[in-house]
Specification:
Elements (H helix, E strand, L loop, with lengths): L21 E5 L4 E3 L12 E7 L6 E5 L1 H12 L6 H11 L2 E5 L5 E3 L2 H6 L5 E6 L4 E4 L1 H9 L3 H9 L4
Antiparallel strand pairs: 1-7, 2-6, 3-4, 3-5, 4-8, 7-8
Length: 161
């Protein structure tokens, strides 16, 4: 009898996880278990979770430390005297939660935010290469159904592969 193939974690050369694909997961006491392939040995255990888009949240944007640092550097490069920067910092920081995977690969998420987004028993995790999103499954399905093919086609033309 053949043994089942072992799932290999997707990662780049430095062991950083790649967040690829869509995964429907049960929500258990505000926690979702990350797919095994999103948890290679060297990948982060700590994440920054932000309700996104900031002013009209539709899902949770989950950033590993490397992506959070990019956002921080961008904000730090702005003038602290600039009122727009202050507004952006307030808007983002008031919607952030820091979260760490437990030993079973479960990511705790703020329950009040989950309820506000309609994420109760089930969530869809959507990979975005170096970050991922947590969606209400039916909202994500509706968003996919409303995708504008012309917009995607134009955007893809600008990507050099």
């Amino acid at each position: 009898m053949a043994r089942p193939a072992k799932i290999k974690a997707a990662s780049v050369g430095n062991g950083t996880a790649l967040y690829l694909g869509q995964h429907v997961r049960q929500v258990d006491h505000g926690r979702v278990i990350l797919p095994v392939e999103w948890r290679p040995d060297a990948s982060p255990r700590d994440f920054t979770v932000i309700s996104w888009p900031v002013l009209a949240p539709e899902y949770l944007l989950v950033l590993p430390p490397s992506r959070w640092e990019v956002l921080q550097r961008d904000l730090e490069a702005r003038s602290t005297a600039d009122e727009e920067t202050a507004e952006i910092e307030r808007s983002i920081s008031s919607r952030i939660c820091l979260s760490s995977l437990d030993r079973y690969g479960r990511l705790p998420l703020p329950e009040e935010v989950l309820k506000g987004l309609g994420i109760e028993k089930e969530a869809t995790l959507v990979g975005r290469i170096n970050k991922f999103e947590v969606w209400n499954t039916s909202r994500f399905t509706a968003t996919l159904a409303n995708t504008k093919p012309q917009l995607i086609a134009t955007a893809l033309k600008s990507i050099r592969i």
